[in-house]
Amino acid sequence: MSEPPSKKLKRSPLDEIPSNVFYSSIKKDEPAEDIIPSPVKSPPSSSEVEGRRRQMIALKEKDRNGVLNMCKIFKKQKDAFRYLEVVLENMTNGDMLAFQNENHHSDMIKLCKDELFIFSFQFNPQMMNEQFFKKYAADVFEGFKQERYFMLSSITFFTQFYFQLHPDVRHFYEIIQEDRPCYLYFDIEADLKKNPKFDKENCVPTILKELKLFLSKEEKIFDRPITFEPEDVLDLDSTKSEKYSRHLIIKLRTCSEDKTECAFQDNFDHMNRFVKIFINHHLRPLRSTDPLIDALFVSNLDIIDESLHEDEEVIIERNTCVIDQGVYTRNRAFRCMLSKKLNSDVMLNVAVCNKLPFVDQKDCFLKSLISNVHQDTIALSISKDNVRAESPSTKKPVRFSFSSFDAYNPDEVLTQKDLDLLKEFILTVIDNKGFVRSHQYNPSKQTIIYQIGGNRYCGNIGREHKSNHVMYLIDLQRGGGIYFQKWYV
Q: Which is one Gene Ontology cellular component term of this protein (predicted)?
């Protein structure tokens, strides 16, 4: 195979990758020592061959150790991604001595893609007492301490230092990188104050039972039959008195004799579609006939400030599935096992009823990473044709988009101009048949509630309510911006 043409790389504004990590000291473009070739070249002696072999083994080990010991901390997520791109781009262009050995070069690129992860973590002042942060983050932590930082690290290095940290400073999240294969995961949650009768005991068993049934009934959803066993599910628990919270990481398998592991091509397109189909076309239709499935739908109206309705009774419906559909976004941050949220004392740990076997906590941690997918894993995909139409109802969240909000940043507080644009949008939704009586904007949750006057049409029943007023809720953080309708008396 001929060597591809050399490509001139643009230097990243970031710190350059240390030469002793990914590059050898010998450059490809250095001229050969023997400018005039010898007419007769003696074959290398056995000792020379052995010496070269040992040299190549040493170089391989050096390159491999460079990847395995990789760790760098950033203030911005985009900088971590840019740095990772530089690493992979330089390797792809063959700027390593190891390029002389094509198999080794290919192995190193594969190793980088498999080993290098991006994590985020919430800053805790106690981190300044940890040796790891003194060594790797002293310059990053100088001056103003922001709430969240990002880390590019090999999973080998990360696991080693992660288990050396004090449990109180573990506030880490795996970044599920866009377009990276990942195992099926569910984030299950329910507000126990708003759902005091929630069935905590049967929630996870019911979901897993119905998921397996769904996979057996919908064989055509993939290009092969897929299933799983209880031993393929890692069940993590961070439930507290006011909130039920579980994470399920499910390693689907083929139904063939070899039971090959399966992962989705990505979490945003393919897994997202699969979860929507499972919830909306399997679970929802069975609510009226199966009480256990009906119990999987709860009231989560936490985006409403109920103090606004002191003289009005808000109708609270159990219409939200406990499987959070908002966690299938690009570059999603998903809490790591054994981590706590900042200012919380509840750790995400293995549930009592977990069935997945593991050797020790480190082994379990590696199995808990969503995108720690092995090379021989089968990639699952779902075409857009498989996403069936939702039932027509304005109670369901509807994604909205218009040019004025193309560059909207969900972390920024809306201006009055932004609020006016959203009000105009709601008026188009009700076809200007009515008016906005009042609205309330919650900057911390990026939600707006519009109380509608002169129009009581309810999309759920297909006609106007006789006495119930309606309201529209806009949530700018979910799915890039959604709105849905509720009503009250």
A: nucleus
